[in-house]
Amino acid sequence: MEKKIFSGVQPTGNLHLGNYLGAIKNFVELNNDNNNSCIFCVVDLHAITVNQDPKELKDNIRETVATFIASGIDPKKSIIFNQSQVSAHSEAAWILSCTARMGWLNRMTQFKEKAGKDKEKASIGLYSYPVLMAADILLYDSTHVPVGDDQKQHLELCRDIAQKFNSDFKAMDFFKIPEPLIKKEFSRIMSLKDGTKKMSKSEMSDLSRINLTDNDDQIINKIKKAKSDSLPMPSSLEELSSRPEVKNLIGIYASISDLDFEKSLNEFSGKNISEFKEKLSEILVDKIKPISNDIKKLLNEKSYLDKILLDGRSKANDIATKKIEKIHEIVGF
Ligand code: TYM
Question: Distance between CA atoms of 176 and 79, rounded to whole angstroms?
Answer without folding.
Answer: 19
